[in-house]
Amino acid sequence: MATSVSDMAGGYRPTDNPMKTGIFGRCPRCQEGHLFTGYLKLAPSCEVCGLDYSFADPADGPAFFAMTIAAVPTLAFAVWFQVTFDTPIWLHLFTTMPLTLLACLALLRPLKGWLVCSQFFHKAEEGRIDLDFRHKSGSQAG
Fold first, then answer.
1. Do residues 120 and 56 lie in contact, with contact meaning Cβ atoms separated by under 8 Å?
2. Does residue 121 contact residue 28 with C-beta atoms inside 8 Å?
């Protein structure tokens, strides 16, 4: 990642490891400020370096990854629990469901931080159609 002049002028060295920085909920530019004001609510900006977090939009990514990562171990637990103890299905509401919920909640914040830091690191932005490219490729075909 190329460090921008404005980052270096402020004395900040952006993260070279967005996963580590994001998991700890730190600012991707200075690695000192906080990303979150609540459990999952992004701060408007970094209190240390002033980086505006309006660029960040992880959308449903953290929820998708959290559910995907939590699903396999909790399903394995549910199958083991059912086969070992031959319990009624309703008992899973008090064992497997809370385990799944807690696993997802534990993963959401670190995953959201990682995705936000990755967006900054890779300079991700909203996609747009390159009309100039479409025009050039159409003129070459004729």
1. yes
2. yes
Q: 21-39, pLDDT tens digit by residue?
A: 999 999 999 999 999 999 9
DSSP for 17-74 reads -HHHHHHTTB-TTTSSSBSBSSSSPBPSB-TTT--BGGG---TTHHHHHHHHHHHHHH
Which long-range CB contacts under 8 A does 90-94 form with residues at least 24 apart?
none
Buried/exposed 63-78: b ≥16 CB within 10 Å, e otherwise = bebbbeebeeebeebb
Q: How many residues can be counted in the chain?
A: 142
pLDDT, position 140:
56
Q: Which residues, 6+ apart, have CB-to-CB distance to 115 below 8 Å? A: 22, 58, 61, 62
User: Helix (H, G, I), strand (E, B), or coil: what is residue 108?
Assistant: helix
Cβ distance 106 to 56 under 8 Å? no
Task: Quick: pLDDT tens for 47-75.
Answer: 999 999 999 999 999 999 999 999 999 99
DSSP structural state of residue 2: P
**How far is the C-alpha of 88 from the C-alpha of 96, rounded, in Å?**
12
